[in-house]
Every structure is written in structure tokens, then in C-alpha cells.
Amino acid sequence: MSKIQMNTPLVEMDGDEMTRILWKMIKDELLLPYIDLKTEYYDLGLENRNNTDDQVTVDSANATLKYGVAVKCATITPNAARVEEYKLKEMWKSPNGTIRAILDGTVFRAPILVKGIVPYVSNWTKPITIARHAYGDVYKNVEIKVPGKGKAELVFTGEDGQEIRETIHNFDGPGIIQGIHNTRKSIESFARACFGYAVSTKQDIWFATKDTISKKYDHTFKDIFQEIYDAEFKAEFEKLGIEYFYTLIDDAVARVIRSEGGFIWACKNYDGDVMSDMVATAYGDLSMMTSVLVSPSGVYEYEAAHGTVQRHYYKYLKGEETSTNSVATIFAWTGALRKRGELDGISELVTFADKLEQACIKTIEDGKMTKSLSLISTCENPTILDSLGFIKAIRETLDSLLG
Ligand code: NAP
Ligand code: MG
User: Are residues 135 and 278 in the same domain?
Assistant: First the structure.
């Protein structure tokens, strides 16, 4: 069989620890035998980030803007312990944060569903994708602990000297105040990324805020979404037969639980933080969550939602057996390859991505899986495989699917 050819390179961002080990296994077993893989390689492993003063992270994000599609391995976000462990020059920032800032992107997270791993919400038969706005609100707040009696005011001073002043509260004793903000530009980018992703995945999109209570702040989110939808996306949505649906956040929560899934739920920053953990847990397992960063200009960066699985890596280093689930990392590759195939009109690449995803799902449904999946699967007598054994089992399924 001749290998599938590519035109444009994928931006490949290598990473750390156990996921770096899986990365190489996935390439060797599941990609290189089938594809004449073209990538522009960036080593985001912590050692190389440290050697390059983190320039490699910036370069990889700029390459993503240039080529349009990236695939990323999980990376360590340094803390004090990591500075010591890797003898770092400084506590480098989170690569995901750096990349997100350069791409101005929104993160979409979706679960991979397989038979035998039953969501806690039994009517969720299709994935729910959460889109979280990643700027502002309570994450960029200013807080004061009010010591006692006094008046709290909200003041805006324009560059032209204009002043807007509102009383927050007349305190007759100690209390607390919080100031939060967002920008029109960031909300617009969020809206465009959401609508663009809905079009690209042909799914309905829901958005919800508390606009009945927050008549200026939350209402502005609602208004901006509606304006951008009407002006830029309505016609395309109607052509595809997909829907934009706005409702109050309380109503959204109730409807989500009663739904069968199969849509994108766009969330403000805090709602997305809380709801993505709830939805991920309800679907079963963090190692079965995919994540894609989408910029408003239509640039895509695919990755697994989980981290570098440090505990497994230390076992691996000691020569002990590991059973780490590579499915979300494989889906990062298939997501990127499919998108590259769509953009370049290479249907073999799209078909290959589909088949590789089917192979992952079928392997698990046939009872071959890693340890953490076996613990939550309803499959009787599953075969528990080690990290490489599981990838080899997927390769066998893939070969049978490719005929
Ligand atoms: P983690 O790597 O997601 O792992 C947490 C635990 O979840 C693991 O110890 C393991 O449980 C289980 N797990 C996660 N993925 C798994 C998989 N594929 N297969 C089997 N089990 C899996 O999170 P963490 O330990 O909090 O973080 C480790 C490092 O990852 C940190 O340095 C953090 O900065 C980084 N991180 C990176 C990203 C990213 O690049 N996107 C995201 C999150 C965290 P058991 O040990 O019980 O088996
Ligand atoms: Mg959270």
C-alpha cells in the first residue's frame, strides 16, 4: 500500500513526560506506516523551552498562524517543584496560555463516546462540546475587603475626561467588593470562534448568560452574539440546517441535563470552568476528552484535555509497566489530520483520520483497553493492555478496517 501524501505541513508541538512517550509510539505505530507525514516540528518539552527562553513556544504559535493547523502534546506548566526538578532559569508561563494569547483562541472540549462507558446522565448519547470564554470576568478581578462603614462606588474615567459614576453600596459595616470587566473585542472573538466551530462541525450552538439580572454586563454578551450571528453566520447556519439558541443560564442547565447531547455549549469564563468539569466527569473519564483551540480567524490547534500523566512517567522511568490511555492524544492527531485534509482537499487523509478514530473506539468496544478504562467499563472480562500493547491493538483494528 502506498503512503498517503500531504501538501502543507502540520505544526507538531512535542511535549513532556508520559505523553511524550506516547507521542512517539503513536507516530511510529499509527501514523508513519500509513502517511508520508509532513510536519514542522517544535519541541515544547520543558528542557527545550528552558534552553530557548520559551521562544520555541512563541515560534510554534506563529507557525500555527502561518499554516493553520497544529497538533500539540501535553506539556508541563512549571511550578516551584518543576523549577527545582528541571533546574529552570525561570518559572516559564503555561505554554497553553502563551499559545492561546497569540492565537486569540477559544478552547472547545468534547468527550469521546464508546459503548461500555456509560455517562452518569443516561440520556447523553451524543457528545456535548463545551466552549469556554478564556478572558476576563472573575479571572481578572479586583477585590477589596471593606473594613467598615463607608461608600463603595464604581467609577470610569474616559481618556477625554468623561466620568461615569455609580454607587455600589453604602456599607454600614464590614463587607466585600469585586470589580470585573470584559472587552468588546474579546467577546466578539469568542462569538466568532463559537459560530465558526459550529459551522465547521455542523452542530447546533447554545449560549446562555444571566442577562435578566445583569442587564448591562451579561446583556452585552447576549447582544454581541446576536449581532455577529445575524451579520456573519445566519445564512450559513440556515444552509447547513443548524441552530443558534440563546437562553438564560438556569434554563440552559436544565435543558442540557434533559438533552441527548450533540451540540456545542458556549459558556462565559466562570460557567465554562465549572461546567466543563461537571460535563467531563459525567461522561466518564478525563483521558477520553479532546480539546481544540480555535482562533476567530479559523486557525486550529488540537490536543488531549489531560496533562502529561506524571505519575505514570515516573513508573516508566523505573522500568515498570504503564497502562496509559493514548486515545485523546490519538484524537488530537486525527483532528489535525482531518482538518489538514479538508483544507487541502486530500480526501484520503480525511478517510484515514475517520478510520483511525473508529479503530480506537472499536478496540475498546471489543474489550481491549487500558487499566483506567477497564475500571469504569461495563465490559465483562476486559483485556487490560500496557501503553504500547494498547496502541498495537489499535493498529491491528486499523489494519482490519483499512482492509
Ligand atoms: P494529568 O496529567 O491529567 O493526570 C492526572 C491523573 O489522571 C493521572 O495521574 C492519572 O491517574 C489520570 N490520567 C490522566 N490522563 C490519563 C491517561 N491518558 N491515561 C490514564 N490515566 C490518565 O494531570 P496532573 O497530574 O495534574 O498534571 C501533570 C502535568 O501535566 C502537570 O505538570 C501539568 O502542568 C500538566 N498539564 C498539562 C496540560 C496540557 O498541556 N494541556 C493540561 C493539564 C495538566 P492515575 O495516576 O490515578 O492513574
Ligand atoms: Mg476548573
Answer: yes
Q: Is residue 145 classed exposed, middle or buried when 0-12, 13-18 and 19+ CB atoms within 10 A define those classes?
A: exposed
List the residue whose alpha carbon is closest to atom 24 of ligand 1: 307
Q: Is the CB of 307 under 6 A from ligand 1?
A: yes
pLDDT in tens, 259-285: 999 999 999 999 998 898 889 889 888
**Ligand 1 centroid vs 157 CA: distance in angstroms?**
45
- Domain range enclosing 257: 118-140+182-283
Specify whether 122 is located in the same domain as 267: yes
State the DSSP code for 69.
E
CA dist 52 and 142 (Å) reads 34
The angle formed by the CA atoms of residues 368, 323 and 99, to the nearest 5 degrees, is 110
Domain count, the chain: 3
Domain harbouring 218, CATH code: 3.40.718.10
What are the pLDDT digits (tens) for 104-142? 889 999 999 999 988 899 999 999 999 999 888 988 899
Please indicate, yes or no, whether residues 128 and 258 belong to a single structural domain of this protein.
yes
Residue 288 within a domain: no
DSSP secondary structure code for residue 112 in this structure = P
Cα 27 from Cα 37, distance rounded (Å): 9
Which band of pLDDT confidence, cut at 50, 70 and 90, is reported for residue 100? confident
Residue 174 reports pLDDT greater than 80: yes
Indicate the top mutation candidate among 308, 316, 329, 376 to test ligand 1's pocket, ranked by most ligand atoms within 8 A of CB: 308
Spatial separation of the C-alpha atoms in residues 194 and 296, rounded to whole Å: 8
Could you tell me if 312 and 364 lie in one domain?
yes
Question: Which of 179, 202, 229 represents a domain boundary (last residue)?
Answer: 179
| Neighbouring C-alpha atoms within 13 Å toward the C-beta of 389 | 11
